[in-house]
Amino acid sequence: MSTATKQIEELANTEYKYGFVTDTEQDIIPVGLNEDVVRLISSKKGEPEWLLEWRLKAFRAWLKMEEPHWQNVTYGPINYQGVSYYAAPSEKKKLNSLDEVDPEIRATFDKLGIPIEEQKLLSNVAVDAVFDSVSVATTFRSKLAELGIIFCSFSEAVKDHPDLVKQYVGSVVPHTDNYFAALNSAVFSDGSFVYIPKGVRCPMELSTYFRINAQNTGQFERTLIIADEGATVSYLEGCTAPKRDENQLHAAVVELIAHKDATIKYSTVQNWYPGDKNGKGGIYNFVTKRGICKGDRSKITWTQVETGSAVTWKYPSCILQGNDSIGEFYSVAVTNNFQQADTGTKMIHLGKNTRSTIVSKGISAGRGQNTYRGAVKIGKNASNARNYSQCDSLLIGDRCGAHTFPYLEIKNSTAKVEHEASTSKIGEDQLFYCESRGITKEDAINMIVSGFCKEVFRELPMEFAVEAQKLLGISLEGSVG
Amino acid sequence: MLQVTNLKVRVEDREILKGINLTVNKGEVHAIMGPNGSGKSTFARALSGHPGYEVTDGQVLYNGQDLLDMDPDERARAGVFMAFQYPVEIPGVNNAYFLKAALNAKRKHDGLDELDAMDFMKLVKEKLKLLHVDDSLLQRSVNEGFSGGEKKRNEIFHMAVLEPTLSLLDETDSGLDIDALKVVSEGVNAMRSPERAFIVVTHYQRLLNYIVPDYVHVLSEGRIVRSGGRELALELEEKGYAGQTAAGARQ
């Protein structure tokens, strides 16, 4: 290794700055997973019978399934029995205002840099803060309610809008879909529920912050977003988690339904604990995210910047059922130190004249392993389908890896499918060139990486774009060689 | 301005420069010539702070400061410019954006206000005209897809925008046709001033017809074996380097 490489690798490995724990009373059920636990979760949440049955069905199916191992990632065996499946802070009464929130929890939010009050006043973003497995505060509810928009926790939606939930939950990701979806369907704790009525444009970006706090508590959140005919909504998901030694499992399910002429944009900035310098600890992020463009001319866009987690396994996907529907996927995934990612997307073209766009940027540094897996399926009745895929990998240093597995399954001869891929490296000579012009090494890295991610950052909502760029800078500090 | 004393440089365990002594004053143009492998480019790169080049001995003073003690970007901001022999491509980074960042870094260092996009574009458009370079260059990524000639012209364009005090031109003429050579030379000549100095590394005398040097030094086997005025270049053109070995010079 050249001296420059060594020097660069020794540069600040930023201590994960969100590593802390809130010491608040928590109502945690003992570890283990069996039918009784599922019943316990359901009863603690006061769920109706139909939902308990739904959970049990999923649980029984899960027992018969085998954990998949085809991903291009390796991780220690997950002890499903060694995890507690429910943790709620000990607040019994319903909260009407933020003043009623446990002050310790409020302090947590402050540390995370999301002072709810400020957000309320300045950024016009409604925040549904999920503290561990239970939603603690929901703001802007009344304002949105005036427009008929429902934005609440999943648990509340079950109580207040059971018909809607019943109609849509599991319609995009059935519990039979995969192992982790089945697990989630059985033990999901909470998440967000959004419903935008016909013709309504949601006036603000909806957002949720998560935090995995209690030791050994996996997070199994379930989110459901429905945009009725002609509706538009942009949803932001941003996560952070404290430092832990045991691996924590995050197996979420996100379902999006877009009706005729509706648009849903789902953006994620993910910064979960990636494991320390030696790859110990860190979050396992195994998520099933899928959207269905149910109606004609509907559109779903997934944008994400993933810099955290020890192991990431997710394929936000679009089913393009409606004619003239559009699916888009813009992603930047960073793996550093010992992180591994097997991510990508699936675009399934079923209707006529459908279009999909995939732009995936993978950045590998340290000993990170980044795998892109993209599937474009054109059904036999999907005439005039068009797809454009671009998968670019940037390698930083000489011990990381990038792998690409594109799958193109085309059953209609009128389809136009384009796939481009590129691999590049930030070379010492590029950095030196920048330095020879008076630009510092850090600025040079940021410049080059930002240039690389330009096309994706352009698609992020403004607030996220800034945070994403900063996050990228932090996660790559000391990585160039 | 530049005082090089007994500079020894090693590249991958091989000592290339075996003790270079050179003084360059403001307003002067020095040409460094020599056969392949003599260490010409090594000299320029060592001065610019290139990571692969290890200085094992000697001292370099730039305006009284210890140049070798400065990081490459510090040297650049202090006014040392390197026009690369093989300019590297930086995809995704816009040429204009890149230059603006570089110029503002230098201005900040000099205690000047940073330029905003509009002022920067005004400044840049003037320089473009000077160098017969097309506007479209600004929109492209740094050196991406540039031909050899375009890359070299881009180097001189950077130099024109950054206005350095000491410019190191590393085989700027290699790969250029006559027209490009003239344009590049015009650009360099337009920047000559009593406050600036140039070190021009080249193989062939031809460039020196256009960029007329004040001093010519012959590098051979890691040492300067002969120095003279511009006539020396013409002599080399006629007689070649054969008679200029280190052994020959010691006689």
Structural overview:
The complex is a heterodimer of chains A (481) and B (251). In chain A, 25% of the residues lie in helices and 33% in strands. In chain A, helix 3 (49-64) runs antiparallel to helix 9 (179-187). Chain A has helices at residues 3-10, 35-44, 49-64, 103-111, 116-123, 141-146, 154-160, 162-168, 179-187, 428-435, 441-457, 462-476; strands at residues 26-28, 87-89, 126-131, 134-138, 150-153, 192-196, 206-210, 222-227, 232-239, 248-250, 253-258, 263-270, 283-293, 299-306, 311-314, 317-320, 326-335, 340-349, 355-364, 369-378, 386-395, 401-410, 416-425. Chain A has one domain (3-476). Chain A is α/β, with parallel strands linked by helices and 481 residues long. Chain A is globular and about 70 Å long. The longest helix of chain A has 17 residues, at 441-457. In chain A, the strands form three sheets. In chain A, strands 5, 6, 8, 10, 11, 13, 15, 16, 18, 20 and 22 form an eleven-stranded mixed β-sheet that branches. In chain A, strands 4-3-7-9-12-14-17-19-21-23 form a ten-stranded mixed β-sheet, covered by helices on one side. With 251 residues, chain B is of the alpha/beta class. Chain B has a single domain (2-250), classed as P-loop containing nucleotide triphosphate hydrolases (Rossmann fold). Helices cover 38% and strands 28% of the residues of chain B. Chain B is built from ten helices and twelve strands. Chain B has helices at 40-48, 72-77, 95-109, 117-130, 136-139, 148-162, 178-191, 207-210, 230-239, 246-250, and strands at 2-11, 14-24, 29-33, 54-62, 65-66, 80-83, 90-94, 141-142, 166-170, 197-201, 215-220, 223-228. In chain B, the strands form three sheets. In chain B, strands 6-9-10-3-11-12 form a six-stranded mixed β-sheet, with helices on both faces. Chain B has a four-stranded antiparallel β-sheet with strand order 2-1-4-5, covered by helices on one side. In chain B, strand 1 (2-11) and strand 2 form a beta hairpin. The two termini of chain B are 31 Å apart. Classes of the chains: A alpha/beta (481), B alpha/beta (251). At the A-B interface, helix 10 and helix 11 of A face helix 2, strand 7, helix 3 and strand 8 of B.
